[in-house]
Amino acid sequence: MHRKFPRTKIGSISVSRMVIGTNWFLGFSHTSKAKDTFINENIGTRKKIAEILEVFVDNGIDTLIGLIQRKVLREAIDAVQQKTGQKVIVISTPTFPVNAKTPELGFCNDQTKRILDQEVKQGTAICMPHQCTTDAMVDRCSRTIRKIDTLMEMIRRWGMIPGLSTHMPETIVYADETNLDAETYISVFNSMGFLMQVEVDWVARIIQGARKPVITIKPLASGQLRPLQGLTFVWNMIRKKDMVAVGVMSPDEAKEVIDISLAVLEGKLPFYHLQETRSKKSIKKQ
Fold first, then answer.
1. Sign, CA torsion 165/167/170/173
2. What are the backbone dihedrals phi and psi of residue 236, each rounded to the nearest 5 degrees, phi first?
3. List of the chain residues with pLDDT < 50
4. Which of 16, 73, 74, 115 minimizes the number of CB atoms within 10 Å of its CB?
5. 267 Cβ contact list (under 8 Å, min separation 6)
6. What is the pLDDT of residue 108?
């Protein structure tokens, strides 16, 4: 292992503070259909994903988050674990279907049990219902997340640590107010406010006040922010127990975000090779 990236804890599990994001592996660009297609055709193979994962694991970043149900991702994780001898800690964000009856009947049904069985089978350590499940159950009138407590209890019963993935700032606030059994939260957080429902400073305050560690996602606004800009902001605005999930499309990009992040955390000016164009010739030292 080259370096030890700083770590924190989610419940009883030690995790790296940088978390490997997987949207760029699976074709979720938040940019365009053409970009999604490019990712699927050029990045989303077991071999290429494994090459990227290996860079992270070699630098002490052993925690991954995303749609672990995708076979290609599970195969890439298995390949890296076998090659490096290092276990990858899986944070899964499964979708638990909701409908008009869910606020009344909740999640204790056969479909939920099948999903949880599959999560256990594929090695999930931390299970965080995806925001399309969580946010559908947020009730601003009662300041609660309806029936989610039973789902958290089931996740515990199946031997996993429960958390909540959300795009709504209210989720963190209401979960804390009701003492919900969630050991961590996911929150969108970046300097340009991309996909954030309220202003950046409001979300920063919510993250700072959360009673559990927060996994911040989309720090680079799905590629709209350069790594130096996005990572410098997020690392300096979160607590030492919080995390940053970053997705990349190549081993070199993985190394770059690691180098920048470590320098920022150490209070140093990050050094990495800058991209060059003809217009920059006049500002280069001779």
1. positive
2. -85, -10
3. 1
4. 74
5. none
6. 86
